[in-house]
Amino acid sequence: MPRNEVSGVISALEEMLDAERHAIRNAEFDGLGKLAARQAELLDRLVASVESPDATALLRLKARADANQRLLSAALKGVQAAKRRLEMIRAASRSINSYDGRGRAQTISCGNSTVERRA
């Protein structure tokens, strides 16, 4: 692969990494699979090239990929925190932890609530 084609692949990878960053930051996770497939395709072309890419360009790619990995990790932590919070809210709707008159912990179940209708 000629030098200018290697540069084109590197530029395309940089664009893909920028698009990935945008998708992560905007919670557009459904598009990440397509981006990852395209990135893998471009990386295969880069690895198969006869010309070795510029070390500076590779360092730029690595820095962008590392930044995206940090963003993905942070997004995952946020989703996990939201999941834990929702589980806590669901648990609170089923029962309440309280203390009795002697200071002992007790759980008060919140059974199915029904409305009594009177004529």
What does this protein look like?
The radius of gyration is 26 Å and the shape is elongated. The chain has 3 helices and 2 strands; from the N terminus they run αααββ. A hairpin with a 5-residue loop joins strand 1 and strand 2. It has 119 residues and is mainly alpha-helical. Helix 1 runs parallel beside helix 3 (55-94). Helix content is 67%, strand content 8%. It has a two-stranded antiparallel ribbon.
Write the layout of secondary structure elements.
Layout: H1 3-25, H2 32-48, H3 55-94, E1 95-99, E2 105-109
Antiparallel strand pairs: 1-2
Helix pairs in contact: 1-2, 1-3
Question: Which keywords apply here?
Answer:
3 helices, 8% strand, 119 residues, two-stranded antiparallel ribbon, single chain, mainly alpha
Main beta sheet, described?
Answer: 2 strands, antiparallel
Strand content: 5-15%
Mean pLDDT: 88
Major β-sheet strand ordering: 1-2
* Strand runs, count: 2
Indicate the structural class: mainly alpha
- Which stretches are low in confidence, meaning pLDDT under 50 for 5 or more residues running? none
Would you list the SSEs in sequence order as H and E?
A: HHHEE
Shape summary: elongated
Distance between the termini: 86 Å
Q: What does the radius of gyration come to?
A: 26 Å
Give the number of helices: 3
**What is the helix content?**
55-70%
Summarize the structure.
The chain is mainly alpha-helical.
